Amino acid sequence: MSAPADPGAAGSLRILHVDSGREWRGGQNQVRLLARELAHDPRVAQRLVTRRASELARRASGHGVPVRQVPWGWSLDPRTLWRLTRELRAFRPTIVHAHDSHALQLAHWARLLEQRRNTWPALIGTRRVDFPVRRSSVWFRAERIVAVSNAVRDVLTADGVPPPRIAVVRDGVDPTEIREAATQPFDVRTRLGVGPKTPVIANVAALVDHKDHATLLRAAELARQTRPDVHWVIAGDGPLRPVLSAAIARGALGDRVHLLGWVPQVDALIREADVFVMCSKTEGLGSVVLHALVLGTPVVATRAGGLPEIAPPEGLVPVGDPGALARAALLALERGVGGTLPAECTAEGMARLTLAVYDAVAPGRV
To answer: Would you tell me which CATH number, out of the four given (3.40.50.2000, 3.20.20.300, 1.10.287.130, 3.30.420.40), belongs to the domain 13-172+346-361?
Structure first.
């Protein structure tokens, strides 16, 4: 286990973060940034429970965040539940903050198991997707739900979650960190074997259905009719990779559309691209768009979920419309003007708003 001494161990707010750590995506980066920022508050003592040997565990530990690495082999792993009950008993948190649905379910069960020991911390869950929730789901068991956008909040209220239980806290980024990471070259044009001035349009997203790469491929096919020089790159991996590879082959797009797989230097790729495209059909917020805004890369995005809350209005297009996506991407390529990071979407701002949620639900403060 990676378990440095708890900073602020005498803090009046004792936060137990729980994240399944299955992947390294935007949600895990938000957990890292939140824990990093909270470590500066003398009122806060915190621990993070996450999957053993995960990227989240490694990066959070690097910030001095106390991490409890646990076996978490499948979604609702009973071994994880057992470790969580031990953490509730030993750490006695005032708040358990679960950062994904599986973490929330296990945290809820652990709290029920430990209630006989008078351990009843407030339970908070972060909701990052704009999918519907069932009335029987664990989301109705949390004292508060942190929604990452107004769009997510609206879905929750439509499904019956009382509005006072929901707090909107958008994702935050560290602009300095992003700019520094982007200085390490990815050399996307060299990797593609094209000239230094070749136009490149980039997408960064997991290869899953709701990211709607099928529409992106059709947009690339349409754009080729007027701009055959443009190359489209997709950074990310996932279960739909074979499907997308087959679609690229059928459309004879292999010389213009490139599946890069998972890219560790994502900020460098975004900086080197001429346009950044987000083509989702559902999206809680789309925190990677914030990276593009920091780096000054023009953004084109669908009007899905929370994307209109952060993406420039002139770059918004309807969901599932390849023609509109192609036209907007080529127009952004010609204009070459990036957007502006929303003022509240910094790591510091996100942590400050999350801390206000903690203060509102901590036992004795409701």
So the answer is: 3.40.50.2000
Task: Work out the end-to-end distance of the chain between its first and last CA atoms, rounded to an integer number of angstroms.
Answer: 35
Structure tokens at 237: 């991996």
Name the class of domain 175-335.
alpha beta
pLDDT digit string (tens) for the chain, length 366 residues: 333 334 434 568 999 999 998 889 999 999 999 999 999 999 999 999 999 999 999 999 999 999 999 999 888 999 999 999 999 999 999 999 999 999 999 999 999 998 876 668 999 999 999 999 999 999 999 999 999 999 999 999 999 999 999 999 999 999 999 999 999 999 999 999 999 999 999 999 999 999 999 999 999 999 999 999 999 999 999 999 999 999 999 999 999 999 999 999 999 999 999 999 999 999 999 999 999 999 999 999 999 999 999 999 999 999 999 999 999 999 999 999 999 999 999 999 999 999 999 999 986 543
**Residue limits of CATH 3.40.50.2000 in the chain:** 13-172+346-361, 175-335
Helix or strand (DSSP H, E) at 68: strand 67-70
Q: What angle do CA 291, 293, 298 make, to 5 degrees?
A: 120
48 backbone φψ class: left, alpha, beta (φ>0; ψ -120 to 50): beta
Q: Which amino acid is at 21?
A: G
Look up residue 273 and give its amino acid: A
Count of C-beta atoms within a 10 Å radius of residue 3: 11
Q: Please state the pTM of the whole predicted model.
A: 0.92
